[in-house]
Input
Amino acid sequence: MEHSPSLSRSGSALYQAWQALRVEKPRLRARDAAAHLAVSEGELVASRLGVDTLRLRPEWAQLLPALGELGYIMALTRNEHCVHERKGYYREVTVTPNGQMGLVVSPDIDLRLFLGGWSSVFAVDEKTEKGAQRSIQIFDRQGTAVHKVFLTEQSNLQAWDSLVERFKAEQQSDLLDLQPLPQKPAVQADESIDADSLRSGWASLKDTHHFFALLKKHGVARTQALRLAGREWAEPLALAELPKVMEQAGERQVPIMVFVGNQHCIQIHTGTVSNLRWLDSWFNVLDPEFNLHLQTAGVTELWRVRKPSTDGVITSWEAFDVDGELVLQLFGARKPGVPELEAWRELAEEAPALNA
Output
């Protein structure tokens, strides 16, 4: 649940309230502490200014490539129900001339960045029981975390000091220019959608990236499109099949692509998964370079989706929450110009679809 922007208390008062809460609940994460205190996580981090945090200039075209200087890091992107953590190096960073889009396309850190919604950024140097934890934390205009980069034991500390000094904001203000979350457009009734035209457009897709344009053209919500597309293209699955398919991918060592994102950042892991663990209703991947934490209780719809392309049909599994927001996507490992991995297609097609 996203919280409305709040500037009802000064940074120092908020920081004191947070520290009191930490004494009471020492294991509480910042995101959950913010919810408990009825503020955004961005405000919570800003309250640390002058303690262990510096505000940086949001100069994305310069800052993002500079993250490569930090060496081996852990990149974290999450949404309400899923956390994606990938270790590696920031390489091959590009930002479009208009500053609205960015890409990181290294083999390990693989990101799609929608920079138009990015707002504030902080460097945090926190003392913990395990030693110093240094991170770059980026927030949107609602104060929600977009993306974080954590240093590891193998990171370059000299580069950290240099980067923080280079991008340090002149004004170290704890006030954030927060804005209400834009209202989502109303979903049209199924009867008002030209389903035949939607299905025809779907069948004519040449690239999976054109799918968003198809949805926009027909004014259709994503899960609504899946319902209307027909069983050839989209089939509902039992929710329990999601952890099962990942367990089977691990057992067979089928390389997969795991997409997790929010409105402003998508993070991708490509490779196998091995160390899979349950903790209550959380399903976790705990591999050396890739961690995933999925709150399965947050998934309310699961679909097997097929999209045609010039490389053949591309099969994905797509998990959604109660608001129709995408929680997680799974694909077989592949690159443009290469057909879908047969081992993934066989695995993806094994689960029986639910009855209509």
